[in-house]
Design a protein that fits this description.
By secondary structure, the chain is α/β, with parallel strands linked by helices. It folds into two domains: 7-129 and 181-291, Spore Coat Polysaccharide Biosynthesis Protein SpsA, Chain A, CATH 3.90.550; 131-177, no CATH class. The chain contains eleven helices and twelve strands. It has helices spanning 20-31, 53-59, 75-85, 105-113, 130-133, 150-177, 195-198, 209-217, 222-228, 267-274, 277-288, and strands at residues 7-14, 39-45, 65-69, 90-94, 99-100, 118-122, 125-126, 185-186, 190-194, 232-236, 242-243, 264-265. The strands form three sheets. Strands 3-2-1-4-9-6-10-11 form an eight-stranded mixed beta sheet, with helices on both faces. A two-stranded antiparallel sheet has the order 5-12. The radius of gyration is 21 Å and the shape is globular. The N and C termini lie far apart (47 Å).
Length: 298
């Protein structure tokens, strides 16, 4: 199926974040044309009644439709619930901290998903593996005081072994949950897919941040499910260039160089942009390993 039909853009507004992130998104949404017809759906998450006047002033600038949901779970639960309940041909999901950075942003994403064999596109992707990043060996062992009870002294004498055991067990657990580096995954801050694909995605209950990490980058997460369907996953740059998963590091869209080709920013890309050179190198190494490049800081 060629995705030529109705496009729904879903933006999540969480009550706990206040109106600031919504203002940032709407400022960017009105500053840059989407380049293609669509419907904007604003999902209010965790509001105990109508939005305050400040939210109304911000949203008065755009035509939109509203959905209200509880604050239970994380953003991806809401996204796939919308896909189930709100029929469209294509969905573009933008999280609470999304900020559009270029004109024709939606048209560029839509052009990528229209390519035969492509099942998922995003504004950013990463190779980061929580399994490969895991390293507990650098923890400093606390000194044991002589007046401590016998059981604490026993633990202190055996602490290196116990910590090593914990490290081994955690490592084994994470190995079963996450692919080793390079662990290809489209980040869920801004992504697009067809409804027929969305309805095939298995979305577990996401109650903790770790559950969200699993869905984004785990062995049974979003990207891996799409790849298992025999479909490709692409990252789309600000200039419209499409990158296959092995090329994502060269897109300079996430935690690399100065993120020059980033199409949609979020809190994670802002953290990298604001960091010093040492922190940026750490970020970039997590995401890209030997292909890391911290760019230049001002």
């Amino acid at each position: 199926m060629q995705p030529d039909g109705r496009i729904v853009v879903v933006h999540l507004v969480r009550a706990a974040n206040g109106p600031g992130p919504l203002r940032t998104f709407i400022d960017s949404y009105t500053a840059y044309t989407a380049g293609i017809e669509h419907e904007l759906v604003v999902v209010f998450k965790g509001f105990n009644g109508p939005p305050a006047e400040e939210y109304e002033r911000i949203l008065a600038r755009v035509r939109h439709r509203r959905i209200f949901v509880s604050d239970e779970g994380y953003d991806v639960n809401v996204y796939f619930r919308v896909a189930l309940e709100q029929e469209a041909d294509l969905y573009c999901f933008l999280n609470s901290y999304s900020e559009i950075l270029a004109p024709d942003w939606l048209r560029k994403l839509r052009a990528a998903i229209a390519i035969a064999g492509v099942g998922l596109v995003g504004a950013t992707g990463s190779w980061q593996s929580i399994f490969s990043n895991y390293d507990d060996a650098t923890r400093v062992l606390p000194p044991m005081l002589p007046q401590q009870p016998r059981w604490k002294r026993f633990l202190g004498e055996n602490l290196p072994f116990l910590r090593r055991l914990r490290f081994v067990l955690r490592r084994r657990m994470l190995k079963g949950m996450f692919e080793p580096f390079p662990n290809y995954h489209v980040r869920t801050n801004a992504f697009m897919l067809r409804r027929e694909t969305a309805l095939q995605i298995k979305v577990p209950p996401i109650r903790r941040k770790f559950d969200a990490y699993l869905f984004e980058s785990g062995r049974e997460g979003l990207t891996m499910q799409v790849l298992a369907m025999g479909q490709r996953v692409l990252v789309v740059g600000r200039d419209g260039t499409r990158y296959e998963k092995d090329e994502w590091c060269h897109s300079n869209t996430f935690w690399r160089s100065n993120q020059e080709d980033l199409l949609v920013a979020d809190n994670q890309t802002r953290s990298y942009a604001a960091a010093d050179a040492t922190a940026r190198l750490t970020y970039s190494t997590y995401a890209w390993g030997p292909e890391a490049d911290p760019g230049t800081t001002t």
